[in-house]
Amino acid sequence: MSVVAVVAEVKAAQAFLKAIGASPTNTDLIYAVVSWMRQESGSLKNVVGNNPFNLRPGKDIDEKLIAGIRKSGNGRFLIFKSLEDGLIATAQRLLRAGNDWRGYGLVVRALRHGSSLDFITAISLSAWDAAHYGYKAPDVTTSHIYRIYATFTGLQLPKPEDPKTKKRPDPVRPRDLNAPIVVRDYIDAHEARRMFLARHKSDGVLPND
User: Fold this and answer.
1) 3-class DSSP assignment, residue 72
2) CA–CA separation, 180 and 175 (whole Å)
3) pTM summary value
4) Would you say 51 and 79 are in contact if contact means Cβ atoms under 8 Å apart?
Protein backbone atom coordinates (compact mmCIF):
# COMPACT_ATOMS: atom_id res chain seq x y z
CA MET A 1 0.00 0.00 0.00
CA SER A 2 1.41 3.37 -1.01
CA VAL A 3 1.98 6.18 1.48
CA VAL A 4 0.62 9.67 0.81
CA ALA A 5 2.63 12.87 1.26
CA VAL A 6 0.94 15.69 3.17
CA VAL A 7 0.25 19.05 1.51
CA ALA A 8 2.95 20.91 3.46
CA GLU A 9 5.59 18.41 2.35
CA VAL A 10 4.52 18.65 -1.29
CA LYS A 11 4.57 22.46 -1.31
CA ALA A 12 7.97 22.53 0.37
CA ALA A 13 9.35 20.00 -2.14
CA GLN A 14 7.98 22.08 -5.02
CA ALA A 15 9.62 25.22 -3.60
CA PHE A 16 12.89 23.30 -3.37
CA LEU A 17 12.68 22.05 -6.97
CA LYS A 18 11.83 25.50 -8.30
CA ALA A 19 14.79 27.02 -6.45
CA ILE A 20 17.10 24.31 -7.85
CA GLY A 21 15.90 24.92 -11.39
CA ALA A 22 14.06 21.61 -11.73
CA SER A 23 10.42 20.94 -12.60
CA PRO A 24 8.16 21.62 -9.58
CA THR A 25 5.40 19.54 -11.19
CA ASN A 26 7.43 16.36 -11.67
CA THR A 27 5.64 13.94 -9.34
CA ASP A 28 8.55 11.50 -9.11
CA LEU A 29 10.94 14.27 -8.08
CA ILE A 30 8.45 15.57 -5.51
CA TYR A 31 8.22 12.11 -3.94
CA ALA A 32 12.00 11.75 -4.03
CA VAL A 33 12.53 15.07 -2.21
CA VAL A 34 9.82 14.27 0.35
CA SER A 35 11.48 10.87 0.89
CA TRP A 36 14.79 12.60 1.51
CA MET A 37 13.10 14.97 3.95
CA ARG A 38 11.43 12.11 5.82
CA GLN A 39 14.68 10.16 6.02
CA GLU A 40 16.29 13.18 7.68
CA SER A 41 13.47 14.09 10.06
CA GLY A 42 11.10 11.12 10.25
CA SER A 43 7.96 13.21 9.88
CA LEU A 44 6.80 16.83 10.00
CA LYS A 45 6.08 16.66 13.73
CA ASN A 46 9.79 16.01 14.30
CA VAL A 47 10.94 19.03 12.30
CA VAL A 48 12.25 21.84 14.50
CA GLY A 49 12.35 25.42 13.27
CA ASN A 50 11.13 24.45 9.77
CA ASN A 51 14.61 23.04 9.25
CA PRO A 52 14.21 19.33 8.34
CA PHE A 53 17.84 19.02 7.19
CA ASN A 54 19.32 20.68 10.28
CA LEU A 55 21.07 23.40 8.31
CA ARG A 56 23.70 25.35 10.19
CA PRO A 57 24.47 29.05 9.63
CA GLY A 58 26.49 29.91 6.55
CA LYS A 59 27.01 32.69 4.01
CA ASP A 60 25.50 30.57 1.25
CA ILE A 61 21.95 31.02 2.61
CA ASP A 62 19.91 34.17 2.04
CA GLU A 63 19.46 36.02 5.34
CA LYS A 64 15.89 36.96 4.39
CA LEU A 65 14.89 33.33 4.84
CA ILE A 66 16.30 33.08 8.36
CA ALA A 67 14.02 33.78 11.32
CA GLY A 68 16.55 32.94 14.02
CA ILE A 69 19.15 30.52 15.32
CA ARG A 70 18.52 27.59 17.64
CA LYS A 71 21.28 26.42 19.98
CA SER A 72 21.59 22.84 21.17
CA GLY A 73 24.21 20.46 22.46
CA ASN A 74 25.12 19.66 18.84
CA GLY A 75 25.71 23.26 17.84
CA ARG A 76 23.76 26.07 16.20
CA PHE A 77 20.93 25.47 13.75
CA LEU A 78 18.91 27.82 11.61
CA ILE A 79 15.24 28.62 12.16
CA PHE A 80 13.12 29.47 9.11
CA LYS A 81 9.84 31.30 8.76
CA SER A 82 8.21 28.39 6.93
CA LEU A 83 8.98 24.86 5.78
CA GLU A 84 9.15 26.15 2.21
CA ASP A 85 11.83 28.66 3.23
CA GLY A 86 13.75 25.83 4.88
CA LEU A 87 13.72 23.86 1.62
CA ILE A 88 14.68 26.91 -0.45
CA ALA A 89 17.65 27.41 1.87
CA THR A 90 18.58 23.76 1.32
CA ALA A 91 18.52 24.36 -2.43
CA GLN A 92 20.79 27.39 -2.01
CA ARG A 93 23.31 25.32 -0.08
CA LEU A 94 23.41 22.71 -2.83
CA LEU A 95 23.63 25.29 -5.61
CA ARG A 96 26.31 27.48 -4.08
CA ALA A 97 28.56 24.54 -3.30
CA GLY A 98 29.23 24.19 -7.02
CA ASN A 99 31.13 21.14 -8.25
CA ASP A 100 33.37 20.66 -5.24
CA TRP A 101 34.37 17.44 -3.52
CA ARG A 102 31.02 17.11 -1.76
CA GLY A 103 29.26 16.00 -4.94
CA TYR A 104 26.37 18.45 -4.74
CA GLY A 105 26.80 19.41 -8.38
CA LEU A 106 25.73 15.90 -9.39
CA VAL A 107 22.67 16.21 -7.17
CA VAL A 108 21.62 19.44 -8.89
CA ARG A 109 22.15 17.98 -12.36
CA ALA A 110 20.10 14.88 -11.54
CA LEU A 111 17.22 17.05 -10.35
CA ARG A 112 17.35 19.29 -13.40
CA HIS A 113 17.47 16.22 -15.62
CA GLY A 114 14.27 15.02 -13.98
CA SER A 115 15.51 11.64 -12.78
CA SER A 116 14.35 10.73 -9.28
CA LEU A 117 16.55 7.62 -9.08
CA ASP A 118 19.61 9.56 -10.23
CA PHE A 119 18.85 12.15 -7.56
CA ILE A 120 18.56 9.49 -4.84
CA THR A 121 21.83 7.94 -6.01
CA ALA A 122 23.62 11.31 -6.19
CA ILE A 123 22.51 12.56 -2.77
CA SER A 124 23.39 9.17 -1.25
CA LEU A 125 26.86 9.28 -2.79
CA SER A 126 27.43 12.90 -1.74
CA ALA A 127 28.90 14.14 1.50
CA TRP A 128 25.49 15.28 2.80
CA ASP A 129 25.21 12.19 4.98
CA ALA A 130 28.37 10.70 6.46
CA ALA A 131 26.89 7.19 6.26
CA HIS A 132 25.57 7.81 2.71
CA TYR A 133 22.09 6.68 3.80
CA GLY A 134 23.24 3.06 3.73
CA TYR A 135 23.84 3.14 -0.02
CA LYS A 136 25.97 0.34 -1.47
CA ALA A 137 26.95 0.93 -5.09
CA PRO A 138 25.60 0.22 -7.59
CA ASP A 139 22.31 -0.85 -5.93
CA VAL A 140 20.11 2.23 -5.41
CA THR A 141 17.59 0.08 -3.54
CA THR A 142 20.02 -0.10 -0.59
CA SER A 143 19.60 3.64 0.05
CA HIS A 144 17.25 4.41 2.93
CA ILE A 145 15.84 7.25 0.82
CA TYR A 146 14.86 4.83 -1.93
CA ARG A 147 13.04 2.60 0.54
CA ILE A 148 10.83 5.51 1.59
CA TYR A 149 10.43 6.54 -2.06
CA ALA A 150 9.20 3.03 -2.88
CA THR A 151 6.43 3.35 -0.28
CA PHE A 152 5.18 6.44 -2.12
CA THR A 153 5.46 5.12 -5.66
CA GLY A 154 5.21 1.37 -5.27
CA LEU A 155 8.34 1.06 -7.42
CA GLN A 156 10.19 -2.21 -6.92
CA LEU A 157 13.50 -2.47 -8.74
CA PRO A 158 15.25 -5.81 -9.28
CA LYS A 159 18.59 -6.34 -7.64
CA PRO A 160 21.49 -5.66 -10.02
CA GLU A 161 23.39 -8.72 -11.17
CA ASP A 162 26.46 -9.41 -9.06
CA PRO A 163 29.47 -9.62 -11.41
CA LYS A 164 31.03 -12.20 -9.09
CA THR A 165 28.15 -14.61 -9.63
CA LYS A 166 27.54 -13.80 -13.26
CA LYS A 167 27.50 -17.00 -15.32
CA ARG A 168 30.54 -17.30 -17.52
CA PRO A 169 30.13 -18.48 -21.11
CA ASP A 170 30.94 -22.11 -21.84
CA PRO A 171 34.47 -22.56 -23.19
CA VAL A 172 34.82 -23.15 -26.90
CA ARG A 173 35.32 -26.84 -27.61
CA PRO A 174 38.58 -27.68 -29.40
CA ARG A 175 38.41 -29.05 -32.90
CA ASP A 176 38.36 -32.84 -33.03
CA LEU A 177 40.83 -32.93 -35.90
CA ASN A 178 43.88 -30.77 -36.34
CA ALA A 179 43.94 -31.18 -40.11
CA PRO A 180 41.11 -31.02 -42.57
CA ILE A 181 39.89 -34.21 -44.22
CA VAL A 182 40.82 -34.43 -47.87
CA VAL A 183 38.14 -36.08 -49.95
CA ARG A 184 39.14 -37.36 -53.36
CA ASP A 185 36.81 -38.51 -56.10
CA TYR A 186 39.48 -40.79 -57.64
CA ILE A 187 41.72 -43.72 -56.57
CA ASP A 188 45.27 -42.75 -55.63
CA ALA A 189 47.45 -45.70 -56.74
CA HIS A 190 50.30 -44.90 -54.35
CA GLU A 191 47.93 -44.57 -51.39
CA ALA A 192 46.26 -47.88 -52.28
CA ARG A 193 49.66 -49.62 -52.39
CA ARG A 194 50.64 -48.25 -48.94
CA MET A 195 47.34 -49.38 -47.43
CA PHE A 196 47.76 -52.89 -48.87
CA LEU A 197 51.29 -53.24 -47.51
CA ALA A 198 50.26 -52.01 -44.07
CA ARG A 199 47.26 -54.31 -43.89
CA HIS A 200 49.13 -57.45 -44.96
CA LYS A 201 52.43 -56.54 -43.32
CA SER A 202 54.09 -57.22 -46.57
CA ASP A 203 57.84 -56.98 -47.14
CA GLY A 204 57.20 -54.43 -49.78
CA VAL A 205 56.76 -56.85 -52.61
CA LEU A 206 53.32 -57.03 -54.07
CA PRO A 207 52.05 -60.07 -55.92
CA ASN A 208 52.90 -60.03 -59.61
CA ASP A 209 55.55 -57.30 -59.03
Assistant:
1) strand
2) 10
3) 0.75
4) yes
